[in-house]
Amino acid sequence: MSKLVIVGTVAFDAIETPFGKTDKILGGAATFIGLAASQFGVDAAAVSVVGGDFPQKYLDLLSDKNIDVSGVEIVKDGKTFFWSGLYHNDMNSRDTLATELNVLADFQPVVPEDYKNARVVMLGNLHPLTQLSVLEQMNQKPELVVLDTMNFWMDNALEDLHKVMKHIDVITINDEEARQLTGEYSLVVAARKIHEMGPKYVVIKKGEHGALLFNEDNVFYAPALPLEEVFDPTGAGDTFAGGFAGYLAKSDDLSFENMKNAVIYGSTLASFCVEKFGTERMVDLSSEEVHKRLQQFKNLTQFEIELT
Questions:
Q1: Angle, CA 258 vertex, CA 205 and CA 304 arms, to 5°
Q2: Is 60 designated active site?
Q3: What CA–CA distance (Å, rounded) separates 237 from 38?
Q4: Half-sphere exposure at residue 146, Cβ-oriented, CA atoms within 13 angstroms
Q5: If both were cysteines, with which of 52, 101, 146, 295 could 170 make a disulfide (CB 3.0 to 4.6 Å apart)?
Q6: 87-145, pLDDT tens digit by residue?
Q7: Which of the following is catalytic: 95, 232, 238, 284?
């Protein structure tokens, strides 16, 4: 079975949307990535850090999804990373109310020995040098390295971000971040510039407007599945990345054609994530539900064009 290393936050979130609000609930990039990747039955390990305030039941939840948590450091006298956000009525914009790094401030990731030969590495959103330190621990270069990042690191650690981008195969960012990283408005031109920075493949997420996949002169576009309502967008991008990486970890095919499938699987899983607060929907998601929605995606996107 292919091994997948997932690096990122395991955290507490407190969320308010037009549909309601939560107290501290389970969140974090590595959590959403892991739950999405677990749909593919891959041998995955999460590399992260939590405080002594982090409930054992959440670690058990990840273990029950076949996610190895031996790489999750527990700092007994520390507090877990916490983020709080308020979403506006359009659900596309939000205000960050609180960000408490806590134990994440001094996080030094340690990849479990059994996973230093992993075929696929998914670098969730963290400081670029933290991401790079994970790659330096691997026994050999993974066949596929996927990196997620955000505008915060472009503002505060751009040189370090460029450094780690030289060692990755795929970058997943949103359209705003792609424009900031390159100074280009056209996403086609932006993708070309990002290629020159290192990644062979560029995935640009456009939220409710789908996702684009670029590789040299090849372009693929996947729409987002139209949903009746979006309850909470938190973690949707990480869920997309987890579905993308999880599918490719399961597959022996890392071609552009197969990455199209990975984008569709990522989009499908993200469409479930937004239906409830936090990780709630992903925790009890069944393979039957995923298959049914994939069929909806197929019906949405495939038809024969009559040429006259």
A1: 85
A2: no
A3: 16
A4: 31
A5: 146
A6: 988 777 789 999 999 999 999 999 999 999 999 999 999 999 999 999 999 999 999 99
A7: 238
Model pLDDT, residue 1: 66
Q: Which residues of 130-167 are buried (b: 16+ CB within 10 A; e: fewer)?
A: bbbbbbebbeeebebbbbbbbeebbeebeebbeebbeb
pLDDT tens, position by position, 227-284: 888 899 999 999 999 999 999 999 989 999 999 999 999 999 999 999 999 999 999 9
Write out the two tokens for 16.
């308010």
pTM, entire model: 0.96
Q: What is the distance between the alpha carbons of residues 102 and 37, in angstroms, rounded to a whole number?
A: 27
Joined together, the tokens standing for residue 186 give: 């056209």
Give dist(CA 307, CA 81) in Å, integer.
56
Q: What is the pLDDT of residue 252?
A: 81
What is d(CA 149, CA 79) in angstroms, rounded to the nearest whole number? Answer: 24
Residue 104 DSSP class: G
CA pair distance 28, 12, nearest whole angstrom:
7
DSSP output for 293-304:
HHHHHHHHH---
Residue whose structure tokens are 């030289």: 166
